[in-house]
Amino acid sequence: MDSINMDVVAQEQQEKIPIEETANFVLDESVSNENSNKSLLKYFYWQYFSRYKEGKEWKAKYNYCKSVLGTNPRNGNINLKKHVLYYWKRIKLTNLRQSTIDESLQRHGKNSSDAFIFDVSHTRKLIAKSICMHEYPLSYVDHVATREVFTSMQPTFKMPSRNTIKKDIFEMYEVEKLNINKMMDANDSRVAITTHMWTSNQKKGYMVITAHYIDSL
């Protein structure tokens, strides 16, 4: 094989190296060989770019400012190095801020989990609320998969029966009705009342009352 064909094969092999693999190279300052250092530098700066082919030319898109640079294995990657060094301060600042945010979220999550106390009554209220809000049947509490979900989150939780959850719903209704009465008593503006009626698939009639607040002029 002559020297020209060897150069072509070497170029094709270098172009086939995926960017994910080149991003794993880390610059080792202890390497004494100058040519080896240059080679590592070439791979090191690729971790900040996404490589793709446009027509017959390879392009490199910078992952931070989205700038597109030309890249050719024969000419080296000095333009990538210059671009990264130009934005190096911004990269370090972004990483520093992100690390601070991540650490804060981790501390908050740890404190929240440490202070968590399971409240059975609160969970029952949420189940009753979900049934009313999403119009689930009362048999929702009897579904095997539903019980498995709650057991996986809290093994000691005992799913309430239909009658128990029905009682919880009526209690919640009385509380909400009392809250609405207090809110209407404290209201100084006028309110327009509209009603809407419909029949369910069980042939039961329902009516909803909507209050429209009218601001005083």
From TrEMBL:
**A molecular function (GO) term:** sequence-specific double-stranded DNA binding
Q: Name one GO cellular component term.
A: nucleus
Q: Which GO terms describe its biological process?
A: regulation of transcription by RNA polymerase II
InterPro entries attached to this UniProt entry: Cuticle_assoc_protein
Protein's name in the database: BED-type domain-containing protein
Q: What is the lineage of its organism?
A: Eukaryota, Viridiplantae, Streptophyta, Embryophyta, Tracheophyta
